[in-house]
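<instruction>
Derive structure tokens from the sequence
<data>
Labelled lines for chain and fold
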Amino acid sequence: MSVEETVVDPAPPAVETPPAEAPPVVETQPDASTDRDDKGRFRNPVQPRIDELTRKVRENEREAAFWRARAEAAEKPPAPPPEKPTPDKYDDYGAYVEALTDFKAEEKAKAVLKADREQQAETKQTETRQSTWQTRKAEAAKSIPDIDAVLSASEVPLSAAVQTELLDSELGPQIAYHLDKHPELAEKLNGMTDRQVAREIGRLEATIGTTAPAAATTDDMPEPEPAPVITKKTTAAPPPVKPIGQGRSTAVDLSKASMDDYVKARVAQGASWARR
């Protein structure tokens, strides 16, 4: 067989397989709020926690500094008062005169301010006492209907020490009512010292607090201690009220005034109730 007759089967055509499709590329953008800053640098994931702790530490430091300053200010002794200028500390007499003038003006301003504060405190205390007295009298009127009329028209004299103690007493109106009904007891109290008066008013409080005031008698009341023998009797009553009006005197004799009149007169005088 010749070469020409040799039959060679052709190879089957190659099957072309389509190339596998690559997965789509998804472009991801970095989260600028968490991963990177505005300049593209990676953020520290623990930085927010560090910032929070730093803020709290600074707040604690500021609070500690505040209380430390308060404590130091409380322990710091008050500054000494300024010394009065003297000529030997100044080379120029004019500078000395100017410093002395400023010193006197400052001292006068301080005195005026102090007096104003004391007057305000005194006025407030006086108003409080008067209001308290009226409140107590209104409460006492629930069991003593005629207490207001009796105290307003009372002619039983009471010393300044007795009236001051009545103003301080929670049962002051009831005791004043009882003294009006028993002027002999009021007379004994008027002859006592301030300390004895305070003690006897306390005993009257204990008695009247458990006894109806209108039904009380001198036998029910404790016998006051005898007053000490005084060769020269001086009165502790305050000066009379300054007259008000066109030449007419409105002075009130506080030693003979009723309790209500005494309170009104002392308020008009601007009395310092804290002083005895």
About this structure: DSSP finds eight helices and no strands in the chain. Residues 128-231+253-269 form one domain.
